[in-house]
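Board notes, transcribed. Complex of a protein with zinc ion.
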Amino acid sequence: MLRVHASWVHPVAAPPIPDGAVLVGDDGRIIGVGPHPHIPTPPGTEALEFPDAILVPGLVNCHTHLELTHLARANHAPEFAKWIRRVRELKEATLPEEFRRAAEDGIRDCWRRGVTAIAETGSTGVVMETLAELGGRGIVYQEVFGPDPAKCVQSMVELTAAVARLRPLASDRVRLGVSPHAPYTVSAPLYRAVAEYARREDLPVAVHLAESREETELVRDGSGPFAEALRARGITIEARGCSPVQYLVQLGVLASGTLCIHCVQAGQDDVLRLRAAGVTIAHCPRSNHAHGHGTAPLAAFRAAGVRVGLGTDSVMSVADLDLWAEAEAADLTGEAALRMLTLEGACALGWESEIGSLEVGKQADLAVVTALPPDRAATLLTMIAGRPVHQAPA
Ligand SMILES: [Zn+2]
C-alpha cells in the first residue's frame, strides 16, 4: 500500500481538506481520503510526505495530438486551410521512429504537468501503443480521412484494419475510439459509414467540429478556401445550407458521448442541438485564439448542461501542453479551474466513475502540485492507478 500526505488535499467531489492524506491499495485504487490523523498507515505502507503542497486528482487533457509532439513550432502557414495542408505534409515526412519518440515525449510531458488521462486523436496508432507500454491512461481516437466520396470504402478498409491492430491493446487504462477527422477532410458517406461502424462496434467517437469560419463557409455555402482546395482535387462540393453542427446531426454522427472538439462557430441553436444529441465538448481556448477562430460559447454550453472539458490541442497550434494555461484562458482559477481540469474533464470523456476526483473506490490517479492557479504550479508527483509516473527531483 501507499500513503500520500500533503498540507492540503482537494478531492474535488468534496471540500478541500487541510493536512490530509490518501491511502492507495495494492490494486491501484483509493481506499481512504481524509484528515491525516484519520487515515491509517498499515504496516508495510510506503509513505510519501508533502508538507508544503497540494494533493489533487490527476488532470484530464480532453484534446491532444501527441504523435505530433516533434512538430512544435514547425508550421508557419498563415491561413487555416493552408495550415491544415501543411500538417499533412509534415506528417507525411515523419518517420515511424520519430512518431514513436514524439508520442513518448508527449506522454511524459503530460505526466510532468500532472496530467494522468488524455483524449488523443491521431492516425498512426503510436500513442495507443506507447500508453499501453508505459502504463499511461487515455482514450485514443483513431482518425480516418477521406473527403472524396468515391474513396469511402478505401478509408473504411484502412480504419477497420487500424482498429483490428489496436484493439488488443485496449484495457482498463487505455481505450480505443474512432475519429472521422473534420468536415473538410471527411465526405458525407464516410461520416455515415464511420458512425454506423462505431455504433456496431461500440467505439467512442470524437470529431473536430465547428472550429473555423472557413469550415462553416464550406458546409453552409460550399465556398471558401476548403471548398476551393477540394474542387482543385476534382471533388464535388455541395452547399449544405446549414451549420456544421446541423450537418453532423443530419448525418447521424452526433450521439450520446460523442466528443466534439472546438465548437467555436456555434450559435445558441447549435448549443441546443449539441445538448439534444448528448455530446460532450473539448474546449481548446488557446488553440482557438492562436488560429484566430474566435471564442467558443463556454458559458452557453455550461448553462445548457453540456459537459465540457479542457484540451490543449497539438503543440503545432499551441506551443506547449500546459493545461493550467487553458483554464486561465477560460477565465477559471482556484477550485473552479481544478474542477474543470479533473472531474469535468473525466465527465466529458465518460470516465467519471473511475477517475476525476479523489474518492474511495476510484483509481488512484493523482498529482501533487505546489499551487493552484492563478499561481504558477510545479508538479512534484504524478501517479496513475497508484503507480508514480513522474517525481520531481528532490
Ligand atoms: Zn485537434
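Residues 63, 65, 121, 208, 261, 313-314 surround zinc ion (CB under 6 Å). The mean pLDDT is 96.
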